[in-house]
Write a structure and sequence with these properties.
Length: about 350
């Protein structure tokens, strides 16, 4: 009996110039052997300017673990743009992403996406996971959209260990901005071991852990600690737990760039795409290429996963996180955190 891929090749040959994929996509828009896609099944407001999109992925999707993230691609102005988003739904459920409208891609997802729309997706990734084996007590510190992985972690944990001892310290600007506040309250009403503490910065000022944690969570030293949120909250938490000599599990959405916004750039030539573009000194080569519609690989966009590696053919680049300069021809550079320092040519 011919194998499935043989049949696919045969059918594709008969349907040339369109691939079999293209016909199947008409029947089921999630179908593609080239790129995973998902249908948006629900769009739910989660807070002002924030929405949760529930997705039904096509065949080939590997179920996520609580705390992981996924890349989602949408076409903005005719250009395919990819961004990583935390998966906010618990394990075992359809993946959801909870997105704040900030930037082109997020704004399109929040404001212009409707049930039935199709988005491009990649497999779940990330290691902001529940402890294995499962142990409590836990302390989860969330700021802003940092509540999204916490919801996945807590709801998954309580489904497995209904008596788990968990404190969630959730910082938001106002009560209305506290993402998943109602869902956390509902969980706490059913699980005595979950305690939710809110901190509202408009009323109480920015959360400073060193000044407040002993009062808010007196037994914080005895809890495995997780943090996710804005850069300032993560920096504060890292310094605090480091001073205490205790481990901290961190999930970042962005990484601080130290490079001067007015740093001198140059041009970048994407040799394979045949395009030369102005490249400001504070913009990553990935951002410059994407803005021009060049499809480039990316993942975390923070210099961690190395999905965006490209070979430098010529010129020097500046690391946007450390400020250091490199420029060895043949060197693999992370385009998400590298900016032009003069004229640069990439094998891309
Ligand atoms: S996208 Fe992850 S290192 Fe560049």
């Amino acid at each position: 009996m011919p194998k499935a891929n043989t049949l696919t090749r045969l059918a594709s040959a008969l349907t040339y110039p369109l691939r079999l994929d293209d016909f199947l996509a008409v029947i089921d828009p999630r179908h593609s052997s080239r790129q995973l896609r998902a249908v948006v099944t629900k769009v739910t407001p989660a807070a002002p300017g924030v929405a949760t999109l529930t997705l039904r992925p096509g065949r080939g999707w590997l179920p996520h673990m609580a705390g992981q993230w996924m890349r989602v691609g949408v076409d903005v102005g005719g250009v395919r743009q990819w961004r990583p988003f935390t998966i906010s739904s618990p394990e075992g459920e359809a993946p959801s992403i909870t997105v704040g409208a900030a930037g082109d891609v997020s704004t399109k997802l929040v404001n212009d996406t409707r049930p039935g729309d199709v988005v491009f997706i990649d497999q779940p990734e990330g290691d902001f996971l529940l402890p294995a084996p499962l142990t409590t007590p836990l302390l989860l510190v969330a700021g802003g959209t940092g509540a999204t992985p916490m919801y996945a972690l807590i709801s998954t944990l309580l489904a497995r260990l209904p008596d788990a001892d968990v404190v969630l310290l959730q910082a938001s600007r106002t009560p209305q901005d506290a993402i998943f506040a109602a869902e956390f309250a509902a969980l706490a009403s059913r699980h005595e071991g979950l305690k939710v503490i809110h901190w509202h910065s408009r009323e109480s000022g920015r959360l400073k852990l060193a000044a407040s944690i002993d009062t808010l969570v007196p037994d914080w030293r005895d809890r495995a600690a997780y943090v996710c949120g804005p850069t300032s909250l993560i920096a504060d938490a890292e310094a605090f737990w480091s001073d205490a000599g205790l481990p901290l599990t961190v999930e970042r959405f962005t990484i601080p760039r130290i490079v001067d916004p007015d740093a001198v750039g140059g041009t970048v030539t994407f040799a394979r795409a045949g395009q030369t573009l102005d490249a400001p000194g504070a913009s990553s080569l990935l951002e410059v290429g994407e803005r021009a519609g060049i499809e480039l690989p990316s993942g975390c966009r923070m210099g961690i996963c190395r999905t965006c590696l490209k070979t430098l053919k010529d010129g020097q680049v500046r690391d946007l996180v450390t400020g250091s300069l490199t420029g060895e021809p043949g060197e693999h550079i992370r385009t998400c955190v590298s900016a032009a320092a003069g004229d640069v040519t990439l094998d891309a």
